[in-house]
Amino acid sequence: MTTSANLVSVKWLKEMMVSSTLKFRILDGSWHLPSTGRNAASEYKEQHIPGALFFDIDECADKSKNLPHMIPSPEFMEDYVGALGITNDTYIIVYDNNPQFPLFSAQRVWWMFRLFGHTKISILEGGLPSWLSQGGQVTSDVIHVPREKFVAKFNKNLLKTMDEVEKNIENPEFTLLDARPEGRFKGQAPEPRSDTKPGCIMNSTNIPFMNTMNLEQRVMKSPEELKQLFEDAGVDLTKPIVASCGSGVSACILALAASIAGKDDVAIYDGAWTEWFHYGPAQFKLNVPE
C-alpha cells in the first residue's frame, strides 16, 4: 500500500520507529460512541503502540458548553499539546482502536491539529487492529515526556458555527454534508445519545462515513473512488463544503476523504446534529420522529 501525507501504513510506521531521525510522536486518539460502553482511556492503559501517548478528545475540549467535545480555545490546545511533548516541529502519527472501521476517531485528532495550524500529522490506516494483525508490538507502559512549547495558529476557515449553518440554509454559500448512517439521517434509526432524536438539517446531503472505506481491507478508498463518491452524491469538490455528523467526529472522515481526493479545505460544523437538535431552529429540522 502506498502512503500519503494523510495516511500511513503499519509497515511504514514500523520502519519509522526503527530508523527515522525525525522528531515524532505517536498518539492514541481512540474514542467510542456513548452507546458502546467502551472506555478508550482505560483501553489505552491496557495496551497501546510502544511510545504512544493518549489524546483524549473529551478532555481536550471546551467543557463550558453543554455539548460533547467542542473545540477548545487555542490557549487550551497549546497547553494540552505541550504536555504531550509536542512542538510545532513534531511530526505526529495518530491511530485509534476500532475493530469495525479502519479509522473512527483518529481523523478528529488529525483535523484538530490542522485547525490549530499543525499539518505535520498522519493517520495510521487500519489503527491498532491492523497494527496487531501485522505483528506490531503493544505495551501497557506509559512513557513520561518533558513539557514542550506548542503555538496554535487557529484556521477559522476550517470551523463553522450553528449560526453560520442557519444562514447558509437561506443564503447558500456552501454544501453541507452529513456523515451519519442513512437511518439516523432519515430519522429511522436511533442516535447514540438517549436525549437526542434522529433527523437532519434542512438542505444537507448524506454521505455515510463508512462509504468512504473499503472495510474488508481496512483502508480508505482510493482518490479516484472518493472523487466518484462525492460526484455520485451531487457534490462539487471545487466549491465550499462543510461536514457535519452527530457530534463532530465522523464529519472529519468526510474532510479526510475530500483531502485524499484533492480538496484540503473542508470545514466542520463542530456542534453538529447534537447541537442542532437541541438548540437549532425548529423549522430547519427534518425527519425528526414525534
Quick summary:
With 290 residues, this protein is α/β, with parallel strands linked by helices.
Description:
By secondary structure, the chain is of the alpha/beta class. 29% of the residues lie in helices and 14% in strands. The protein has helices at residues 10-19, 40-46, 74-83, 106-115, 127-133, 162-170, 182-185, 223-232, 251-260, 272-279, and strands at residues 7-8, 24-28, 53-54, 91-95, 121-124, 159-160, 175-178, 200-201, 205-206, 213-214, 219-220, 241-244, 267-269, 285-286. It has a five-stranded parallel β-sheet. The chain has a five-stranded parallel β-sheet with strand order 6-13-12-7-9. Strands 8-14 form a two-stranded antiparallel sheet.
The DSSP helix count reads: 10
Q: Spans of 5+ residues with little confidence (pLDDT < 50)? A: none
What is the mean pLDDT? 96
Helix % is 25-40%
> Which term fits the overall shape?
globular
Percent strand: 5-15%
Over all CA atoms, what is the radius of gyration? 18 Å
Q: Describe the strand arrangement of the main beta sheet, using strand numbers.
A: 1-5-4-2-3
Largest sheet: 5 strands, parallel
Termini Cα gap: 48 Å
The H/E string reads EHEHEHEHEHEHEHEEEEHEHEHE
| Total number of beta strands | 14
Structural class: alpha/beta
Keywords:
five-stranded parallel β-sheet; 14% strand; alpha/beta; 10 helices; 290 residues
